[in-house]
Specification:
Layout: H1 4-11, H2 18-32, E1 35-40, E2 64-71, E3 77-85, E4 88-95, E5 100-107, H3 120-123, H4 127-138, H5 143-153, H6 157-164, H7 193-196
Helix pairs in contact: 1-2
């Protein structure tokens, strides 16, 4: 863990008990997650400066540790306390901005070898497990780490918004590349099949579909009432809007004229 060894070397001469080592480790996790220490005690003091180091007198009591931290962006301040209870340390952290409180109980012997308090290579045990607990239970609101993760993920916020927007119109694809997923029953009795068996998944219905009812398909011409593939959603029924066939019938000279067609008052 980069930087922890340097910190440990700075405070090694002041370490007197295994609890001191745990507090040193938790302090470094706070630093790694976007905070710096302001000093000891519950109240701010004149001349407080943010530092990655532990302040003088940080472990004087041996039973109660009280430290104050501020985030790198100055938007959050933490009041950090650790109380020794038998062989455990009970951590309590309050964010003064949100008044949110988090806590963590650590069994010291699970993570510290009391026989090697001043040997950095041997004093720590299960550091990955302890680091995960500190980040998830004591420092869930840290903003520095979350911003780093956001930069690494490089997710497109616009894509997320479009995916979650229920009013977004889906992207249309050219009809030439879009093939309707229809069956193609050419039997003349296919029309009405779905009405006879609505739950059978059959095609066809009361309204005759010129593409599916057995009529010849001369070509796709909207003027003839025939639409190109993909123009009608799968399973949809519609009334033809023009006569089926290649030619539209026109007036016939042999047709009988209407009665009174030569009446000027008609």
């Amino acid at each position: 863990m980069a930087g922890l060894e340097v910190l440990f070397s700075c405070v090694s001469s002041a370490i007197a008990r295994p609890q001191d080592v745990v507090v040193c480790f938790v302090h470094w996790e706070a630093v790694q997650n976007g905070y710096k220490c302001l000093g000891t005690g519950d109240e701010p003091r004149d001349g407080d400066k943010k530092s990655e180091l532990l302040p003088a007198g940080w472990n004087t009591s041996g039973e109660l540790y009280t430290l104050r931290y501020r985030s790198n962006d100055d938007k959050s301040t933490l009041l950090f306390k650790a109380i020794t209870v038998d062989s455990t340390l009970i951590f309590n952290v309050m964010d003064s901005a949100t008044e949110q409180i988090s806590d963590l109980t650590v069994n010291v012997s699970d993570y510290i070898d009391a026989q090697h308090l001043h040997d950095f290579e041997r004093v720590f045990k299960n550091t990955e497990d302890l680091a995960n607990k500190v980040k998830s239970k004591l420092l869930p609101q840290v903003k520095g780490e979350s911003s780093k993760k956001a930069k690494k993920s490089e997710r497109d916020p616009l894509a997320d918004t479009q995916r979650d927007d229920p009013l977004r119109i889906p992207t249309r694809t050219p009809s030439s590349s879009r093939q309707p997923n229809w069956s193609d029953p050419l039997a003349p009795f296919a029309a009405g099949g779905a009405d006879l068996d609505p739950f059978g998944g059959r095609a066809g219905g009361m309204i005759v579909d010129p593409l599916r009812a057995g009529f010849p398909r001369p070509g796709f011409d909207p003027s003839h009432g025939v639409l190109p593939p993909g123009a009608v959603p799968p399973g949809a029924r519609f009334d033809p809007f023009g006569p089926v066939g290649r030619r539209r019938p026109g007036p016939d000279p042999d047709h009988m004229p209407p009665p009174g067609y030569d009446d000027m008052f008609m």
